[in-house]
């Protein structure tokens, strides 16, 4: 009887769907939370000509001919009401580096959202983010009902790529921010073989440093998104050949002088391990490493450092990912760097030094790791170890035809 009624009345399937009871909001949000969306700030002006804006994850292309874009605000949104009254809007597509800006914009009072020099304004007073990945200027073409939202269609008057066009976009997924990181090509097998031969050829320099200063030493590199230990002062030690994820805040010495794709992998690997990252802390960490000319790590001797990483990575694989185990390790490292940023005396914090060895492209090809001393050692002892490590790293850079980046001048405490 129900099918006969359906055929007789000509009811459409979308009408049936609309008359069905809606799913619980929690289930609705949980399921849709697995769908990634880009993040865009839509801006316009209010009745008095002041700037207004909203963060949306629904910005989309609609038509190429004519050029139309759209977004779907809640129908009760006061910002949407202002945009409709103004009849125009600008869309600024956010990049991965804009996570902090996005959070601050969302949390700020409306009158404080456009302070600072991050914004530029057109002749109507409508703001646009200077560092956007891409931008669109549009007039309101039509507004369509869409349940508890509306779909605003904009006729594009102008569009372009911003200075952040080469950067990864900011993405929202499952309640958190992230970014799309293009696959890191890293090194091929031939290149890895070449690096292994280089490591073997400079092994006596690594061993000599360990012997002269009574410290532990190792030489590592990054292969795709893994850190690989190539050689050590004693090649019989079990951590030679250890691999662990290249993920923030570990090994910031590599991240401080590498290409943008590898830097994004460093951040995104950490996001996969921990669910979220403190981008402000990572920016501070990289700035501090570049200023000092080397990095430090906390809470382990060198053998414990690699042994702990290997054990936790191994347990993670056996447990099907081990996010909790690795996350705890990364969180401890993040706490250590937070303390270091507040009190930047390396000798007060460091268990291990990480000194860059540069390749011909001025990026870090290897990292000379020196440990076996504890935090709080005298500044003279620390300076002697650091000076010798920097000297060995410079010699390896020269022997391998590498070149430090312009302005690279390490600072001694």
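^ Assign residues to that structure.
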């Amino acid at each position: 009887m129900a099918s006969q009624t359906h055929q007789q009345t000509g009811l459409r399937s979308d009408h049936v769907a609309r008359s069905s009871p809606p799913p619980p909001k929690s289930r609705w949000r949980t399921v849709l939370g697995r769908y990634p969306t880009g993040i865009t700030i839509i801006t316009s002006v209010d009745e008095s000509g002041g700037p207004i804006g909203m963060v949306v994850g629904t910005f989309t292309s609609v038509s190429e001919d004519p050029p139309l874009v759209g977004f779907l605000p809640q129908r009760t949104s006061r910002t949407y009401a202002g945009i409709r009254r103004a009849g125009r809007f600008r869309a600024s597509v956010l990049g991965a580096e804009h996570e902090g800006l996005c959070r601050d914009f969302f949390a700020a009072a409306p009158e404080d959202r456009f302070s600072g020099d991050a914004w530029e304004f057109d002749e109507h007073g409508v703001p646009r983010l200077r560092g956007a990945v891409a931008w669109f200027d549009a007039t309101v073409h039509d507004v369509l009902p869409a349940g508890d939202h509306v779909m605003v269609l904009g006729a594009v008057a102008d569009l372009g790529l911003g200075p952040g066009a080469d950067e990864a976009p900011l993405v929202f997924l499952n309640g958190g921010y992230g970014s799309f990181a293009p696959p890191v090509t890293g090194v091929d097998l031939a290149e890895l073989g070449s690096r292994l031969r280089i490591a073997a050829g400079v092994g006596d320099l690594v061993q000599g440093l360990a012997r002269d200063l009574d410290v532990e030493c190792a030489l590592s590199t990054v292969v795709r998104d893994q850190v690989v230990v190539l050689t050590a002062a004693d090649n019989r030690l079990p951590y030679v050949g250890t691999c662990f994820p290249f993920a923030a805040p570990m090994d910031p010495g590599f991240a401080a002088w590498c290409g943008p794709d590898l830097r994004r992998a460093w951040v995104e690997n950490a996001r996969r391990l921990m669910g979220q990252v403190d981008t402000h802390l990572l920016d501070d960490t990289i700035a501090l490493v570049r200023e000092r000319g080397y990095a430090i790590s906390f809470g382990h001797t060198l053998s414990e450092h690699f042994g702990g990483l290997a054990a936790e990575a191994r347990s993670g694989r056996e447990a099907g990912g081990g996010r909790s185990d690795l996350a705890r390790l990364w969180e401890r490292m993040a706490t250590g760097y937070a303390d270091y940023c507040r009190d930047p005396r390396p000798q007060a914090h460091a268990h291990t030094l990480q000194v860059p060895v540069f390749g011909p492209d001025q990026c870090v090809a290897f990292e000379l790791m020196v440990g076996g001393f504890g935090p709080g050692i005298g500044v003279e002892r620390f300076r002697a170890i650091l000076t010798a490590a920097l000297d060995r790293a410079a010699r390896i850079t020269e022997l391998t035809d590498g070149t430090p980046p312009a302005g690279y001048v390490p600072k001694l405490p």
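Residues 133 and 272 are 23 Å apart (CA to CA).
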